[in-house]
Amino acid sequence: MKNLKIYLLFTVVFLSQITQSQTIVEKYGQLRVEGSKIKDECGRNVQLKGMSYFWHQWEGFEYWNADIVKWLRDDWKIQIVRASMGVGAPGCEYLADPENSVEQVKKVIKGAIKHGLYVIIDFHAHKNYKAEAKIFFKEMASEFGNYPNIIYEIWNEPIGDDNNPNPKWEEIKEYSKEIIAEIRSFDPNNIIVVGTPFYSQRVDIVADDRLLTDATGSAVKNIVYTLHFYAASHFETLREKGEYAISKGLPIFVTECARVESSANGTPNPVSWDAWERWMDDNEISYCQWSLSTKHETSATLQPGASIKGNWDYDKDLRSEGKWARDNFRKDIKSVSPCN
Ligand code: CA
After folding, report:
1. How far apart are CA 166 and CA 312, in angstroms?
2. Are 37 and 251 in contact (CB under 8 A)?
3. Are 251 and 35 within 8 A, CB to CB?
4. Set 59, 157, 178, 277: catalytic member
5. Region 54-62: what's the mean pLDDT?
6. What is the 149 CA–ligand 1 centroid distance (Å)?
């Protein structure tokens, strides 16, 4: 009897250690979309929470590495990072320097694979760069499509330019069909995030006219649509658009959000954030917060000079939104049991 008790005790300790040592990707495995929910390998609903990097060519580029991904996993307890590869803005963005841009993105992807986080490969563009996006996602899907870690985000925020302001859903839809077909010829199943009109806010328009097939005519699957919000600028009116989309069964992934204004600056609005966070939690909507950056703006989480290997000092290395984000993730993200 005593031996049995000891045996059971060891078994419990052993199993709890397995649970703690497994990464989130080992626990959830290959994700899929069913109705309006993201599901894990054993059919449980999934809500992922994590951080978005800043435009890769600007402040904070030196933090695009595996050590930082591991530090964010271990200290901030996050489950996902978003690699926001800048396309079509000043600096050494993808169009000007595709080779180095891709190399930088791959450091984060490989870091996420190594340390067991999910990673969004974000084509961080405002304009329609369909031809370039095809080339990029062909490379990403052919190289990384077998890893359950990967999520593709094909057009961050459709805004357009003076010649083509605010691309309509019809244009975004045609773009998405072609990029999805390109990805699916290499990766049949990982989740693809589709941008929505007007800074990825109009999920209500998409909800009435969602993608059914890709450019080859194949039925699309494992597609989610993005809603971006900034809690000091966006309130109930935008949430109602999200609410409408959910009522139509549209799967939503908030790939970008913050407590500050839509300029990514200004004063945080904690009351509005709490309403948004409650809404996302109630609806099991995954999200990434903007941003992991040293830029002098309130949404940026790091102080210049914070080590590029992690091991950040809370008081010295984190800006106010960084302190808040880390505390909030640590309080909020619950441990997950392995798939049975
Ligand atoms: Ca795959």
Report:
1. 40
2. yes
3. yes
4. 157
5. 97
6. 9
Is the model's pLDDT at 117 over the cut of 70?
A: yes
Interval 209-223: pLDDT, tens: 999 999 999 999 999
Q: What is the pLDDT of residues 43-52, one digit of tens each?
A: 999 999 999 9
204 CA to centre of ligand 1 in angstroms: 29
**Ligand 1 centroid to residue 145 C-alpha, Å:** 4
Q: Is the distance from CB of 41 to CB of 29 less than 8 angstroms?
A: yes
Tokens of 201: 């806010």
**Residue 127 three-state SS:** coil
- Is the pTM of the predicted complex or chain greater than 0.90? yes
pLDDT value at position 267? 98
Q: Is 157 a catalytic residue?
A: yes
Cis bond upstream, residue 291 (ω within 30): yes
**DSSP SS3 for 30:** coil
DSSP-assigned beta bridge partners for residue 225 = 194, 252
Distance CA 299, CA 261 (A): 9
- Fill in the DSSP letter of residue 221: -
Point out the catalytic residue in the list 93, 182, 256, 277.
Answer: 256
Look-up: residue for tokens 């790091």? 302
CA of 318 from ligand 1 middle (Å) equals 36
Ligand 1 mean position to 119 CA, how many Å? Answer: 13
The band of 335, judged by pLDDT with boundaries at 50, 70 and 90, is very high
Q: Is 256 a catalytic residue?
A: yes
145-158: average pLDDT: 98
